[in-house]
Amino acid sequence: MIEITSVEGLPEIRPGDDLAALIAGRAELRDGDVLVVAQKVVSKAEGRVVRLADVEPSDEARRLAGEQDPRRIEVVLRESARIVRARPPLIIAETRHGFVCASAGVDASNAPEPGTVVLLPEDPDASAALLRERLGELTGSEIGVIVSDSFGRAWRRGTTDVAIGLAGIRPLLDLQGERDPVGYELHATVIAVADELAAAAELVLGKTAGTPAAVIRGVDARGEGSAREFVIPEERDLFR
Amino acid sequence: MIEITSVEGLPEIRPGDDLAALIAGRAELRDGDVLVVAQKVVSKAEGRVVRLADVEPSDEARRLAGEQDPRRIEVVLRESARIVRARPPLIIAETRHGFVCASAGVDASNAPEPGTVVLLPEDPDASAALLRERLGELTGSEIGVIVSDSFGRAWRRGTTDVAIGLAGIRPLLDLQGERDPVGYELHATVIAVADELAAAAELVLGKTAGTPAAVIRGVDARGEGSAREFVIPEERDLFR
């Protein structure tokens, strides 16, 4: 059986906050548990917040902005390695990490205050690794950590949470070469376990209720890896 | 807290089997629980199995097949409303339901025997509704039902399970117009709750272990709807 519990009572997170300590004080964490933390609070703790008043929009940002704030679009462009599709108000971009998502992950919802936007962490795997290390110190337990964000999907309405950073977790479960009960070899079965863990955690994370972390118990996802493994190499990407 | 439990001990499912009864005999089901059933067993119970020896491949199937069995490709074409991308051995197709996935959901893994392939249910929402109705008769409880399948994603390696059919479940949670704790209005937040439930259930469904159903307790996803709501209308689809 799997159990998923939300971490309740976290304060508004500020730059420099010891997020691991704040969580460890509010959750019972055991060896093998997976802690899923919403990107938004990780970014806030890391100070990845931009004040729009400080941003001078470029001509391209003004062109793409339509009726939106061109300063926000400027931040999106700075966070993008490549624009995949732009149809105002929607910009789908590839981030410098290689993730494809709306607005390159730049988001005004749940920002610290009006007029600010939150960026993705510089290196979400490193963010997860730091949380994992600090949780190990605080609890004496081996905790897997996922930094999650809500991504839209091609061809399918709605967002699901996915893993944009991880530590102590196997991102993908590769069943290629294994056999089903009838003996058929599974050729193309690679399961995005870390993304499923992020999606499962979202079920207890209120977007409006301010519950940005959850603990998943009962899944053995221990292993090494990086959320960058989710990025499809350019030459194998059917949808670039 | 959410609990996810696998339904253990199901036999190999055959056409005409009373899947709801087989599950109700092996799971404790309560009001508000969500039962997630892998498409494969639903299709088997509904007889959605094709013997490749009975299939005559078309010229197009032979052309697309490359080194694969052209009869399987013929079945894929018959199940497709539109081919989205074809790069052998991969065919990404839109099914007649409007879902975009590999091989239009036609799959040889976990098929009843070698030389057969399993199709998606004709109408997965109807399949879910029938299971829900029958479970209501058997248990006296209101059970939400999701028929799930493993779909690949654009730009992201690995599959996650999604809802291709549902009953008694709200597929999408629309937070547009609600406000975050700072008062920012959430403009574009529509959460694909049923897909997240399917993904969460996959964490206990062994692809090779023959565990095709799971019960999720503790999520209030009750509501009306159809998995067809996940289909993005053609005019709003950035990635057609």
Largest interface: A-B, 70 and 69 residues
| Average pLDDT, all residues of chain A | 93
Rg of chain A, Cα atoms, Å = 19 Å
Q: Which bin fits the share of residues in helices of chain A?
A: 10-25%
Globally, the shape of chain A reads globular
In angstroms, what separates the terminal alpha carbons of chain A?
39 Å
* Low-confidence residue ranges of chain A: none
Overall CATH architecture of the largest domain in chain A:
2-Layer Sandwich
Order of H and E elements of chain A? EHEHEHHEEEEHEEEEHE
Brief summary of the model shown:
The structure is a homodimer of 240-residue chains. Chain A has six helices and twelve strands.
Question: What does it look like?
Answer:
2 copies of one chain form a homodimer. Chain A has 240 residues and is α+β, with helices and mostly antiparallel strands. Chain A has 2 domains: 1-48 and 122-232, 2-Layer Sandwich (60s Ribosomal Protein L30, Chain: A); 49-119, CofE-like domain (CofE-like fold, Alpha-Beta Complex). Chain A starts with a strand and ends in a 23-residue tail after the last strand. Chain A has helices at 19-24, 39-45, 59-65, 70-79, 124-139, 193-202, and strands at 2-6, 34-38, 49-51, 80-87, 90-95, 100-102, 116-118, 144-153, 156-167, 173-174, 190-191, 213-217. In chain A, the strands form 4 sheets. In chain A, strands 1-12-2-8-9 form a 5-stranded mixed beta sheet. Chain A has a 3-stranded antiparallel beta sheet with strand order 4-5-6. Chain A contains 6 helices and 12 strands. Chains A and B meet through strand 1, strand 4, strand 5, strand 9 and strand 11 of A and strand 1, strand 5, strand 9, strand 11 and helix 6 of B. Strand 1 (2-6) of chain A pairs antiparallel with strand 1 of chain B, so a sheet runs across the interface.
